[in-house]
Structures are given as structure tokens and as C-alpha cells.
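Obj: model holo form, ligand = thiamine diphosphate.
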Amino acid sequence: MEISKETLMLMLRRMWTIRHFEEKVMEMHSAGEFAGGAHPYIGEEAVAVGACLALESTDYIAGNHRSHGHPLAKGGSVNGAMAELYGRVGGYCKGKGGSMHLADFSIGILGESGIVASSVPVATGAALASHIRGEDFVSMVFFGDGASNQGACHESMNLAALWKLPVIFLCENNQFAVTTSYRNSVAVEHISDRASAYNMPGVLVDGQDCIAMYEATTEAVRRARAGEGPTLIEGLTFRYEEHSLGLGRVRRGEYRTQEEIDAWRKRDPLVIHTERLISQGIATQEECDAVSAEVLKEVEGSVEFARNSPFPGPEALFEDMWADEIPAP
Ligand SMILES: Cc1ncc(C[n+]2csc(CCOP(=O)(O)OP(=O)(O)O)c2C)c(N)n1
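Output (holo C-alpha cells):
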């Protein structure tokens, strides 16, 4: 597939945005600047970026508890993401959602949920809305290997396949649900094999390779828009950090070895993409370094933005709690 230099450089920029953002979040969380859970996405950047760049801004995404990277991959505001984690009014949800609730409908980000697999039916419902209204948008949902065992996931896949809904089921197989390996909890060899039960394509993709993710998602988007129905994509990847900030590293040796972590770190998505850009003469090392430096400044600026944004006041308690009344047809 022919991919423009602009898109290839945007992949690099968005992956660096997520990497720097997550590193800053870890630093600021351990410094006690904000409280609450946060699930680092470091190591999985190519999955979100490759997939989201295959979408239009009018397409929808939904995520899960590990979703800082998804809105950033879709071009969402870095300031808004950081301020939301800080619980400030400048955040995506005016500081009332936090790390697991980054929603921005203006660019198709439906939001996330900490209830494992619960966004899968939400994205399927959005695809149903597109189908019923005769609209052109597709929806895509990110969920983990652990979530792929949940009933809501299978119910959604079945109906989506039956009704040929324009939805993409994107399983980010980072291989562990907290400390449980998918090899001990999933009956098939690959999560993508589950697609055959629902008569839809199941595609196993190297989740460290942004271009491979982009190509697989582009085909799934084409199918969805053509009315051919859903696709299950499995991006095989690895989470570098522990399940959640604040859990500590005490259990690391119990469920994955240092050798395994080191081996996956060698297949870092940013390194793979940068080396490819340089070896194919698309960009120089200096150009790639400049992208990283620019993004780092933006992320550092987002911390200042968050610190300077106020906490929501009690008067905002009931704002945005109910939908506007829907006019009768
Ligand atoms: C319905 C439900 N069950 C259990 C939990 C507790 N929990 C939070 S994250 C998680 C693991 C999810 O693993 P996976 O879907 O593979 O995503 P990952 O964390 O690996 O990205 C669990 C069990 C929950 N939040 N919701």
C-alpha cells in the first residue's frame, strides 16, 4: 500500500505524543500531582495510531480503562487529556471523568469505561445508528485480551456480524489481563480465531508495526463502509509497565520474566517505525528527533495547562448529567 510521507510522519508524531504523554503521566502521578488510577499504554502505541489514522474524523472510537492513547491517536487535544487526568475544568469531560473517561464527540471519541468490555456494545450501538440512519460513519472499539472473554463482547460480535454493522473490533492483545496470561484464559490460539464463530474476518497483526496496523484497519474500514460488515483485528503487542499506576512492581517476576519484557522492548514500535523511515530515505534521524522534541514540549506545556486550570466547582455538579430532551419525530 502506498502511504504518503505526511501520513508516515504523522504516525511518528502521534506515537511520540502518546509515549511522552504516558511518561509524563507516570512522573506526575508518582510526584503526587494527581490522584486516582491510571493505566499506562506505553509499548502499545502503534496499535492505536495505525488504527486511528485509517479512520476519518467523523468515524467513532470507544475505548477501555487503558485509553489515554486512543484519543491522542485520533488527534485529540493533549492539554485536554492531561487536564482531565488532573481533574480540571480544562479536561475533556471538564475534570469530572478522569483517566478512564476521555470523551470528545466533536472528533468522534465516544469515551471509555473502566468496566471491562462495556464499550464493545456501545461501539456496536453506534454502528447500528449509522446503519439505521443510512450514514457513512464506522465505529471502532479497542478492548483487551481479557475483555475478549466477556459475554458483552461475544453478544456484540454476533449481532454486528448478523446485521452487517460497520464496526471494527480491535483487540489489543498485550497478552495479560492484570497478571493472567491470555494463554491460560483463551481457548483458541489467537484471539482473531474467534472471528470464525461469527462469520467475519479475523486478522492477526503485528501490533508493534504501525504500518501493518494501518493497512489492516484500512481494509476493515473499506469493508465496513461497503456494507460488508464487521472485522475482528487482533494487534499483538505488549504492555511495558505494570497494569496500573500505584500497583507497584512487586508481582512482575510472578507472571512475566525480565527476559520477556526486554525482548519486547527491543521491538519497540517507535524504533521500528523510525528505522523504517530512515532506511527507506523518507526522513533523516534529525527530522525524527525533531518530531520527538516538539511533541515533548507540547506534553510539558500540557502539565502547565492542567496545573493552571481550576477544579470544577460544586455549582457544576449536575451539569452534563442528563441528555437533552429528544424531540418527537
Ligand atoms: C467487568 C469487570 N471485571 C473486572 C474488572 C477488573 N479489571 C480491571 S482491568 C482488568 C483486566 C483487563 O484486561 P484486558 O482486557 O486484557 O486489558 P488490559 O488491561 O490488558 O489492557 C480487570 C480484570 C473490571 N474493571 N470490570
